[in-house]
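Field reference: sequence -> structure
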Amino acid sequence: MWVDEIQDELLLPVAHRFWTFSVPKRLRPYFLRDRKLLALLVKAANSTICKTSGSGRLQRGARPGIISLIQTHSDMLEWNAHLHLIVTNGVVDYSNPLKPTFKPCRYWNTEVMTEIFRLELISMLVKKNVLMPDIAGNLLSWKNSGFHVYVSWPFHPDEENALKNRLAYAFMPAVTLNRLSFNGEEVSYRSKKNLSLTFTPVDFLARLTLHIPDRYQNIRRYAGFYASNIQRKVRAARKTGEGASSIKEAKPIKPKWAALIAMIFGKLPTECPKCGALMELKQFIMEIEVIQKQVPELSRSPPRLQFEHYTPSETERVYGQDEENVVYQFNQDQPLSDDFFNQDLGW
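Structure field:
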């Protein structure tokens, strides 16, 4: 019913893509401990797509249409908070709400977008006092960050089977009955990779209930052109049979990847470090010996971003200690183990 609704009322008759955004294991316990942080995960993914299509900045009156779907489980029933998104394959210019224009994007650089997504999410977590600056700097220095961005081939929303297949994967339940069995004492579950897991009934319920959303938590979120405040502006056009139902396709956009890379490294890569002039491409150099001679110090990861030092509030201090030897109630050097979230122990 929801697929039929968005096909008839929301999705534009243009090409869409199916996206997946995932985070490293070190950050996953934070989203389990505080489910409200899932909103930051959605916000970081939406910002990454909007800034990529806008060559590093948010363009006024131009956004891609985004539907975000939150999923928290893996194939092994473990906690793995990640996102699935349905996004228009380009930008919708709604400066004139009665006649929106679609500008397709032919190519998306997922490697650059992965780095932007990493920087966006870590910066938001620091701003919310979830991560301390030194921990954030350590996460930004990892060569293999653990962040991942995947994008599918474009498809048209009129292709009902393609849309339903992708949404069926996004809405896949944590447990399917055809992979589940119970012999009266133990619960057996078979994963997609034919790995067999065995639980006691209480352990199985504890693993399963981790993926029940909190009360009033919305696992479907709309952003960009599909946001409710923008859709209200084009609702009049839809009633008259114009606007979204007869959207016009304009010249394709070409994201400026140099501007996107500058967001990560903090400096435009085509700018001369000595005089500040924009450099021109003259030659490709592939030999590592020549590169090391020209650039002695090669950074294999983005430079560490300098975050403001975080000062815990009074409620986070342990009283009875001297001010110089104060001890705080959290230690982010090592996230809490899975035993902390084991509901069997809590019961």
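Note: Residues 2-174+211-310 form one domain.
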